[in-house]
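Meet our chain:
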Amino acid sequence: MVSIEKSAAKATKTLIITGNQAAALGAKLARVQVIAAYPITPQTPVTEALSEYVEKGELAAEYVTVESEHSALSVCAAASTVGARVFTATSGNGLAYMHEILHWAAGSRLPLVLGCVNRAVGAPWNVLNDQQDSISQRDTGWVQIYARNNQEVLDSIIQAYRIAESMYVPVMVCYDGYLLSHTVAPVEVPSQEDVDRFLPPYEPRVKLDPANPVNLNQVTLGDPRMDASGRLCHGYMEIRYLLQEALADCLKRIVEVDREFGDLFGRSHGGLAWGHRLDDAEVVLMAMGSLASEATMAADTLRERGIRAGVLGLRAYRPFPKEALQGLLRRARLVVVFDKNISYGYEGATCSDLRAALYNSDTEPVIHNYIAGIGGRDVKARELAGAVEKSLSMVALGEAEKGTEWLNCQI
C-alpha cells in the first residue's frame, strides 16, 4: 500500500468536457503505457483522444491498432503480463466480444483498467444506453465501478489503477453512453504532479527475466501438485478461491482509495455507495450511474409532497457491498430499485443482489423493482417519483409484494 501525504493539492484546471474526454484524460494522467482498442459507438472518442495524445507526444505510450475487441483486450493482457500499465475501452457488443479475455485477465490476476461506455446489446441493434453490457459480465472476476457524472469518470479511472495494482484484480469503470459520454460538463482536472503522487509507477510482482524463467497460465489440474523443485502448488480450485478472496478484500480497498483520493484532491465519491438525503429517509430510490443522479431530483420532488425520500447511488457493483447496504438502508421501510438492465427470466440484477444482501438481516424494507431506460428510453424524474408513489400506495393497501414492472414501456 502506498502512503499518501496529506497536503494541499496543486492548482487544478476546470475544463468543459464530455465523459469520453474525461476518461481519456484520466488514462493520460495515469501515464498508461499501452493502449489497444477497437472502435465502437459510443466508446470510440475515448481512444481517438488517446491516440491523439500519443501522436502529439503528450503521452509516452504504445497505441496498438487491432482488428477486434477480442484482440484489443488480448493485447492489453499480454502487455500487463510483462509489466506495463494498460488501458482499453469498449461498449455493448464489443464488451461481449471480449468475454473470453475478461475471464483470462481476472484469472491471471492482471491489474487492467477498462472503460465501459454502457450501451444496449443487440439484437435488435441499438447504440443507445442501458447497462446490460457490463451487467452481463458481472461474473467474470472484475471489479465494477459505476460513475454518476463526468467528474467521477475521470477520478474513477485514476482510482481504478490504485485499486487494481494493489489488489491484482482488473477494474471496469462504467459510465452511461451519450448521457455522460457525449454530454459536456465542468470537470476539475488535477495536476500531473499530484496524480503522480497518488499513483506511483506500476511495479509488477512477476517480471519476465531470462535468468529466472517462469511458466504463466499453464494447464492447471483440479488438485494441488508438486512443481519441479518439489514445492506444492495450487490447483485450479485454490486459484479460484484466491481470486474470490481478493475481490472480497476490494470492498475495503475501494473505500480506502476513495478516501485517500479525497485527502489529496479535496473530493471523493462515496467509496462503495453514495447517498442523497438518506439520514432520515423512509423511502429510498436506488440506482447506478446517471440514473441515480436523476433520482435525486425525484427524491426532492417527493420531499416537497411530504414523503421522506432519499437516494442510494450504488457505485461499486462488484464486489457487491452487502454490509454497507445493510447499514445505509437500516431506516428504510421501502426501497424502490431502478435497474437499467434485466436478468432475463427473473428481474433487475441489482434488485436481486439487494434482496440477497438484506435477506435474514436486521434491515428488512419492502423492495420493489422497476426496469427503466432500456435501449435509451428516456427516464424523467417525474416518472421515477410516480413509480415511488405507486409503490407507496400498494404498501399502504397491504400489497407489499409486487412483480417487476417496466417503467414507461408501451405495452
Observations:
- The longest helix spans residues 236-265.
